[in-house]
Each structure stands twice: as C-alpha cells, then as structure tokens.
C-alpha cells in the first residue's frame, strides 16, 4: 500500500521500518528532518511537507502529544485538507479522548476514515514488531488496516467502533503501569531501608504473584536504581496522567492513585528530571525516604 | 516429625492436612474446637490446651493477628513456657515486624528456635500445596524446616537470618497486591463509565503487560463485580496496611499509596464491609464514581 | 460612569445593584434575560446583545467559567470587537490563569484595558458591598477603577500589574477554603463518631486558634450538617480546583491536598451533588466514615 | 495547694512557674535534673523521685509522649502507687486516646481522680498564662481544678466526663493546624513560583477569610521561610498525626488529609528534620516544587 508516516521518533522510526520491510511504499515526514534520513536510505520517500505524506491510502501518525497532532491534522495544508476521500488516518499517538473524538468527527465530515490505534510496548518491542495494538474505529476501516497491524505488532485488540475508547484504554493502561512504578518504588524504599537485598526481594515478587512483563521490565531497573536513557520520559508520563485524569473528570470518576502519581511526576519535573525515564518515580520515593 | 499446629482457619487447615498426608504426627489446637474435628478424623491428635500442642520438635502457628499470636506464645501455659529447648516455632501468620523481633528475642532466651515463614497464596493454593513461603531465621533452623516447607508449598524463598525481614517482605507484598486492587478498581470504574466492555478490557490487560497471577486472579472478580465469600477479608487487609505503615514509620519511609489504600479499607469497614473480600476496594472505587 | 455589566447571577446581581445605587449608568446583559428584569426596574438599561453592553467606558463581566467568558469576549460581535479603544474590561469571574493571560494580550492588541478583579465573599457580602477585591493590571487602568471597587467592596488588594496573578491568588484562596472544608469534614467525622457534641467542639475551634471567617462561616454549617441552598456549588468548587491544579501544573508545583480535594469534588458530582454547597465535602467525609 | 509537677520542658516550666506565682506549694520532678533548678531558685521544692512529687493533692504531668507518661505512672514506685486516694492526676500531655482511657481506669481502681487537660498554645502563651485548656473528667474532679486552670490559661473548655475525649479534641486540633501548615505550604509554593510577593499574598489571606491565630502565627514564618528554633518539632507533629490516625482507625473514620500530612512528616524526619519546627511542612512543599 501507499502509506504516509508522520512522526519518526523512538517509536515511529522502528514501526515505519517494519512497514518498509513488509513491502509497503512509504512516504515519511518529520518536523526535524534529520530523523527521516536513515529511513530514506532504506527505501522510504521523504516528504517535504505534511501534505506530501497524505497522498496515499493510509496515513499513520505517531506524535508526541495533542498539539503535535492538531498541528499536523488541522494546520494549514494539514492532513485534513490533504487526505483524499476514503483515505484512513491511523493515529497511534497517545492523545486525549477529547481530541480523538474531535478527529473522528472532522475526518468523518471530510469523508475520510479515522482509526485510533495506540500501542503498548517500548522501542525494542516496536523494532521486533512485537507491539500490542489497541484499535478502535468503524469495522470497515479496521478491516482495511489489519494487515498493517499484523506487520508491526504481535497482537491487535479491537475495542469498539468509537476510536476514542482505544485512547482511553491506552491512557488507563499507562496509569496502571505508573501505579506499579509508584508502588514498587515505595515497597523497594521500605525493603531497602530495612536492609533486605533488593534483588532477592525482586526475585520473590516476579517469582510469585507479580510475574508480569511490567514487573519484569521495571523491577530490575528499580532494584538497581538504574536510569535508562532511552525510556519513556517523566514529562510524557505526566502528560498521560493529565490526559487520564481529564478523561476521568469528564466522566466524573475519582482516581486518587492517578492524582497521586501525577503529583509525583510534577515533583520530578520540578526537580529537573523531565527527561528521565518514568521509573524515576521510584527514585523519588527513595529520596523521600532519605535514601 | 512430631509437629504441633495451632490455628486451623481457612489457611491453617489445608496446610495441616498436607502435613498429615506427608506422614507427620500432628497435634492440632484451635480456640474454636469444632475446627479441629475434620483433621482429627484424618488422623491428627487433638490438643486440649496450647501447651499440649507444644510437646514436639516443631510448632507451627497460623493465626489471625498479633494479639492471637501473643496470647498463644506469651499467655499462661503458652508456647514459650511449654516448648522444649531446641524446639522450633515456625510462625506463618502475617504479624508485625515488631512482634516478630520480640519473638526472636524471647525464643532465643528460652533456647528455642524461631522461624518466620509467612506465605503467599489463597486457600486453594494452600490445599494444593502450592503456597509460596517467605522464610527467615538462623540457617541451622531453616535447614531443619526445609522438608516441611516443600510439603506445603511450591517454592521457599529465604530472605535472611533475621526472622522479621520475612514479615516485612510479606507485608510489603500484601501492600503491592492491595495497590493493584485499588488501581484496577479506579481503572475499571473509568473504563466502565465510558461504556467499554470490562471483560474486553481485562483481556487486554492480562494479554499484555499485566499477565501475572495477581491480575489474573483479581481481574475477573473486579470485571464481574463478584463478591467472593472465602477470600481475604477487608478487615485483614486493613490490619496488614496498618502493620506495613507501622514498619515504614519505624524506618522513616513515607508510603503514600499504602496510606491511601489504608484509608479505603477503613472506609469499607465503616460501611459494614469488614468481612467482604479485600477486592472490595474496587467496589468502593466504583461507588465513588457513582456506579 | 457608563458601565456595562454582563453576568447577573448570585454574585453579579448584587454587585450591579450597588453600582446603580452609587449613581452609575448601567447597561446590563444576561444570557437568561429574566435575570436582568429586577435591575431594569431599579434603573438599569437592558442590553439585547453583548455588544450593546460594551458601549461605555467600563465593561464588567461576572461569569461562571472560562467558556462563558470566551464566548462573551471572543464570540461574534463580542466585547473584543465592540469595546472602544481605552475602554476597560474588568473581569471579576474566577477564570483560568491561561485565559486571563490571553485576555490581557487580546485587549492590549485592541488598545483596550484589561483588569482582573476576582472577589472573595458570598452573595450576602456582595449585597452589603463588603466584598474583598483582588485586583491586578496596569497602574493607570487600576487607578481608573478604584472608585468602582470602593463602591462594591470593603477592601481592594492590588497584586501586581499582571492581571492573571489576581486570578492565581483567587484560585489559591479557593483552594485554601476547600482545604479547610475538607479537613473540618474529617475532624468533625472523627469527633462526632467519638460521641463528642459537635457544637461544643466548634466552639473550641473558633474560640481558640481558628477564629477566622472561613471557620465561623462554614463551621456551623458542618456542625449542623446543613445544606445551604444559595451557596457556592460543588461543581464550581471542582472547576476551581481544576484551574488551580492546571496553574500549578504549568508552574511545576505539586499540590497533593488540592488533588485530594479535587477527587472529592468529583466524587460529590458523581453522586449527584453538583449543585450542593461546596461544604458538602464534609458530608462526603462523614459518609465515608459510615455516619 | 500542694501540687506535684512532673515534666519541666518548654511547656511545663512556664506553666509550673505560673503556679508558683499563684502561691501554690510546688514539688517538681524532671528526669533531666538540671531543668528543675531554675524553678527551685524561685521557690519550688525538688523531688528526687517521681514518688516524691506525688505526696500532694494534685499531680500535674506535662510529658512528651505515651511512653514517658506510662513510665511515670505505671513504673516502679510510680504515680499510681504513690498518689494517695482522692488525689487528682491532671495529665496535660498530648497522649493517645487509648492511654488516656487506660489511665482513667487505673486511677479509678486506685480511688484516685484523673483529668485529661491538654492545652493549645506555644511556650510564649504558657509563660503569659494565656493557654487554652481542653479539659475532661468527672465534674467533681474538674471543679477542684478550675482555680488551677485559671491560673495558667486564658480559657478552659470542658468537653465531657470522659477524659480521653479531651485528648481526642487536642489531637484533632493539632491535625487541623497541620492541615493548615500543609495547605499554606502548597499555596505559597504556587504563589512564589508564579512570582507573586509572598508577604503581599499573606496580607490578603490574613486580611480576608483567614484572619485567625493559626494563619497569623504561621503565615509569616512560611512567607519568610523562617526556621523557628523553639517551636513544636516535626517529630512531635508526626507523633500526633500517628495518634490521631490511631484514634480514627479505632472509630473507623478515614482521614485522608491526616494520612497525607503524616506521610510528609515522615518525609521530613527521613531527611534529618526531626527537630525542625513543624511548619517545616511548608519547606518540604517548596522543595518538592523545586524552590
């Protein structure tokens, strides 16, 4: 297929690469142009403008936040005006429920399709085509995208025909991860201050009730007090808690743990750790305990 | 071996049964006598007094809380006076770090051994000899107990030679479970109020990053808003948060999620749900959201 | 002076009435027209359109929230286009820091003045011209408004020449009131459940360290479990916590008590109490305690 | 009257001095003997043992915490055995509800009176005989103490005939003060980071809704980021939140703001600020915001 791809960051680049490998014709656009060059060497065509990436049947966007998506879609010569009727915009970014509803309506009016397809998985998973894809949108649109999803992920979960529900699931999933990071942080601070070996402790957790990827991935980072450099940033964790809480506020759902985690991300940002991996929540918990 | 066993509740009874099956001579004591009768029919000897269960090489206690253990050990004609020198008291109850330190000292002075060996696992796991055992104590004592542990559990994790560290690990583990219950409760309230099918949502969680027993066990209970009758009670969840926070206070470790969960257990108790399963945290979260 | 006045709710109507009494020529506009009629009988002129209220030297707006202000100012034939150069818009609404900054810029570009002047005080205080006015804006503009402020309030506090700082002070003040409501709610639940007479307790508080209007006003409401019908609504309390937290997020300031209070307002709204007085926070605290 | 006085710290010494001035015969005891010497020079008799201070009609204790009181009362040759029948023990310390109930029972069995009479006020207020006294106990006992209370305080509030209710009121009052310190800390962090002058801000608070001693006393300390050296210590604030939460737990009352404040006191202690004034809560809030 002819696929436009906008947003070649930590996650976008490996996803785009897998689509290239699968044989699609890819036109890629990134605001910082240097990021598209490696892909160009592997066969992608470079778009000079957003609109140039919107000529095909499919447009995939994988961008940092709501403003970036708004800019690409609603901006002057943006995707909304450039996409043809019947083209599908697959938005893989973690954006707000409100913006996703807005995109559904705007693309619908323009006769275009819109699928929300945020993903779970870190850059390594993206590179290995092992992402989990959370998809929502009209059935007909989804059926046109399934092949693509299979090429970049290990499994696709379809939520419903309302795109923003995929975004809500993604945001709530990031909340659950952050809740794990926070509570592990507190538990490790306790255990460490008591003099118990943190690796022995982690081994118990992952060997018993907590044998899931989220504990296996972040447990060793926290036990070693590592600071991964290629992870998911605190500032993005904060953004996602903000969006989860905004969605919860709109539905009148109190989420006290989400509020607490949000406050701790703000604390991290206030102390200059915006760019640190979001597992830094555990480092903050340790610091509060005087460790 | 000659094994005394005190405390034949939901957890104690199946553990004792497995020791009987393994061929040990068991003398069992329970304050409410009716609970020992089924075991007597399977071959256990009934003790009329605590002291009568303290004649053998090993005494196992599996009791509800600190006062129950204090009563059995320090009470008139209690275990401390009744156990012979070199006997070992294996305390499987989830008790405070402080009491465990106190027991270490008291048994030590009396020339007796003391092992803390709290467990992870619900009554079904106890019945299937699939418990996880968290053990701490002097090496020599532990080596005398390993065979017993293998007969009742699937794996034994040794922490250190300070018994109370096993209790701290157990308490922190219960905190981590409660934190999962609370955050799942908030996430399901959000997702449900948005109109997303809760089973589809759960399927995503356990199919991706959250594929651990704690999510697999409690997820369906929460998705179905079940109220299991044989579970771990809110009042016991509250007790354990109290003990975890007391240990954290003694070590000067702030644990805000533990504080929040404790407040929610108190709310449950205040609303007459002391005896409900501790996954009731999720029901409280739903109720707060007006569900 | 020729004064336009938009927004004749619980607070706006008595303020406008005091300006009429002071001898100003008032042109009043309200979306729900019935609310302007009592004022018309007292001498105010009725504006059919927003623009008709923007002909004078001064425009005062006292509206419910950001969208209402945006609509009046930026809407088609709104204040921004209708006000003459050198006219001053005095915004008394409790709005966001972001919108206030936006208004500063927009009015400035149009050669118009902009003053933020939110107030502390309930409708009775507005009627008695006893409001406290928190004002910020350019000195020259402020000096043109001082006379008006004296006619409606008991004291005017000037913050700085940046209008949005008055809004931040107002939001932080509402946060402090809500924090008092929440903590009084918790304290009264405790004291009441212990069997202590709540009025005797309140008498101690207001007779010792807590002898301030905020305790004297809300204490009796909470001690009697009253539900005032003309108060400040939970839904508005929620809105203000949302705005305070948004301002705090923008400045990277964690405010955990504000987060907690916000969650409790959401709980109130979820349980159908949007329109209840915000002292309902205390009723929620009592309910959580099973009272 | 013949009055024994045990505990001559920051609060006890000025109270004892006022009783001396009022003409009572005072026998004083303090564990650290050097603290009684200034009082001896002013006419007090020094007791070498606790029992020596228990010969009179009245015993007043003003001690740091539960263990100190338990030691003095229940210790070998302690007050319980040394006081004569009909003597009254006035406990002014801020102790737990549980211990106060225990003292009521123990003194009652010994035919002695027991009054709980904790106070509000800092050392300056104690020196000026301006304390607020919160008293509870049997009417007959209270009537025998009123004269004494008038000599050391500006007002006595009688709660009920159950002594521990005075302790609960005192603990809940300290909770309300700590809640003010915490919320002021958050508000000042916000305002300060926005660039608003903190004194101008404080002036608004105390000039409007927050014109109470608690804001007037602590507001300037927080606005100036002072660190008073003779204040009420963080470690004592933590102790009181612990006791308030224990009382609330026993009555099944969730107090989330108290939990939050407790966590912040623990954070202060973990960071070496045990001995800092409890207004240090505001400094922690500022630090979290990167100030």
TrEMBL record, chains A, B, C, D:
<feature type="active site">
    <location>
        <position position="170"/>
    </location>
</feature>
<feature type="domain" description="6-phosphogluconate dehydrogenase NADP-binding">
    <location>
        <begin position="2"/>
        <end position="158"/>
    </location>
</feature>
<dbReference type="Pfam" id="PF14833">
    <property type="entry name" value="NAD_binding_11"/>
</dbReference>
<dbReference type="GO" id="GO:0051287">
    <property type="term" value="F:NAD binding"/>
</dbReference>
<dbReference type="InterPro" id="IPR015815">
    <property type="entry name" value="HIBADH-related"/>
</dbReference>
<dbReference type="InterPro" id="IPR036291">
    <property type="entry name" value="NAD(P)-bd_dom_sf"/>
</dbReference>
<keyword id="KW-0560">Oxidoreductase</keyword>
<dbReference type="InterPro" id="IPR013328">
    <property type="entry name" value="6PGD_dom2"/>
</dbReference>
<dbReference type="GO" id="GO:0050661">
    <property type="term" value="F:NADP binding"/>
</dbReference>
<keyword id="KW-0520">NAD</keyword>
<dbReference type="InterPro" id="IPR029154">
    <property type="entry name" value="HIBADH-like_NADP-bd"/>
</dbReference>
<dbReference type="GO" id="GO:0016491">
    <property type="term" value="F:oxidoreductase activity"/>
</dbReference>
<dbReference type="Pfam" id="PF03446">
    <property type="entry name" value="NAD_binding_2"/>
</dbReference>
<dbReference type="InterPro" id="IPR006115">
    <property type="entry name" value="6PGDH_NADP-bd"/>
</dbReference>
<feature type="domain" description="3-hydroxyisobutyrate dehydrogenase-like NAD-binding">
    <location>
        <begin position="166"/>
        <end position="284"/>
    </location>
</feature>
<dbReference type="InterPro" id="IPR051265">
    <property type="entry name" value="HIBADH-related_NP60_sf"/>
</dbReference>
<dbReference type="InterPro" id="IPR008927">
    <property type="entry name" value="6-PGluconate_DH-like_C_sf"/>
</dbReference>
<protein>
    <submittedName>
        <fullName>3-hydroxyisobutyrate dehydrogenase-like beta-hydroxyacid dehydrogenase</fullName>
    </submittedName>
</protein>
